[in-house]
Amino acid sequence: MENTATLTKPVAMIFDMDGTLFQTETLLLPAYHQLFDILREEGHYEGETPDEELMLGCLGMLLDDIWKKVIPNGTPAAHRRADELLLLLELEGLNNEAAVLYPEVKETLEELHRRGVRLFIASNGLEHYVKGIAKARGIMPLFEGIYSAGEHGTASKVDLVRLLLEQHNIQDAWMVGDRSSDVEAGKENGQTVIGCQYAGFGGKQELKGSDVIIQSFSQLLKHYDQTMPSR
């Protein structure tokens, strides 16, 4: 998996947000518990808060699909309220310095930007959440485009990445992410996939099909430097 002999330097890199750039649990888990406290108070939910691992295991999925797993017996109104509360609580939580990017993410992105790589984000999250993280953590100016399922209404990350590639006329990119949906999005669109294994949210087969797997974000620069220029 570490062999980069067949890789070529990309024109662009497309990054997932949660579990790739951003340590999601540092923001999500406090908001998650507050969310269920409010749902109980408002009569939308009864019983104990579902295990944190259930929510963390759903990262990378569309919100509609997340709530079907986390609150399977919830009403449509409860799911809509959960959407609203999660966004509100997470945006508030961005003011907390404990909600952080992974180590060396900002520095690595800055170096790639200096080298002329076109940088993008493609996330299944809500628009204000994804852009809110990029803005709050000072990486927004590094990206040429930030794409989210919430903004574009795409049914899958495959569709979201396809839209990004078409709108920016990109033929050669690396899709960088930590979930099977990222692998699928890259491969279905004919792109190289760099799997990120440092978050640990998925199982052993989560990144199957990746061209390279990295154990820390800073390794991305090493692989970029070792590749051959594209023809």
TrEMBL record:
Matching entries from InterPro entries are given as: HAD-like_hydrolase_sf, HAD-like_sf, HAD_sf, PGP-like_dom2
Q: Give the record's GO biological process terms.
A: DNA repair
Can you tell which superkingdom this protein's organism belongs to?
Bacteria
Q: Which GO terms describe its cellular component?
A: cytosol
Give me the segments passing through the membrane: none
Task: Give a GO molecular function annotation for the protein.
Answer: phosphoglycolate phosphatase activity
Protein name (Swiss-Prot/TrEMBL): Haloacid dehalogenase
